[in-house]
Amino acid sequence: MHIDLSGRTVLITGATGELGRVMARTLANCGANLVIHYLQNEAKAKQLKEETEKLGVQAVMVQADITNEQSVFRMKEQAEHAMEKIDIVVANAVIQYEWTTILNQSPQDYESQFQSCILQNVYLAKAFVPGMIDRKYGRIIGINTECSMLNNSNQSAYVAGKRGMDGLYRVLAKEVGEHQITVNQVAPGWTISDRDRKNGTVQRSEYEAGVPLRRRGEDQDIANTVAFLASDLAGFITGAYIPVCGGNIMPAI
């Protein structure tokens, strides 16, 4: 048994980010063609395109502001012009901001999280789901976070945005399920990325002590889960929120 995405095309928003790059490489290794979304980092997008094309797949770069509906629809037109159809959408992009207490957090930070966690997914659904309905096939995969369940101090804007995203995804799963479109979320823990490897911050003992597996996950762990959900192996899974965090959160029935 192996994951084969040959003949499928995947759009990854925020593909040049720490997790997005590993997702792109992993999905390309599974045979998927790629639409590499970026906002500003064209150089990194170009590097990722060249790297994944060496794996024998097609890849195109598309610049877009995922918080702007017109920009998302332009991305759709460019992506479908290059690739004809988009089978799988991975919503990975998120706006970064400085975390602080609710009393000190700027209202604009709450707005930014609403835009990138909720409206991004509304625009992506409006742009790409109609084509999936026509083809009776599709995968929508959103990157959520363990923070949605931890509700730790100083995370209110991020948690509010991602919890809203969770509700949106569950409703969308019910609305499009009859068309054989699955809608799922991956919720990473505090994940090791290239930034940690470069900065020597791989070990975080204060965090690891509370994780049942007593370690942090790797970016590859997140990418592996995305690849599984993108594949036919997960064809009967929808509406799921899947933690990839070593048991740091455990959703209850």
From TrEMBL:
The keyword Nucleotide-binding does not apply. It comes from the Bacteria. One of its GO terms (biological process) is bile acid metabolic process. GO terms for molecular function: oxidoreductase activity. SUPFAM superfamilies: NAD(P)-binding Rossmann-fold domains. Keywords: Oxidoreductase. Belongs to the short-chain dehydrogenases/reductases (SDR) family. This is Beta-ketoacyl-ACP reductase. It comes from Paenibacillus baekrokdamisoli. The lineage of its organism: Bacteria, Bacillati, Bacillota, Bacilli, Bacillales. The gene is fabG_9.
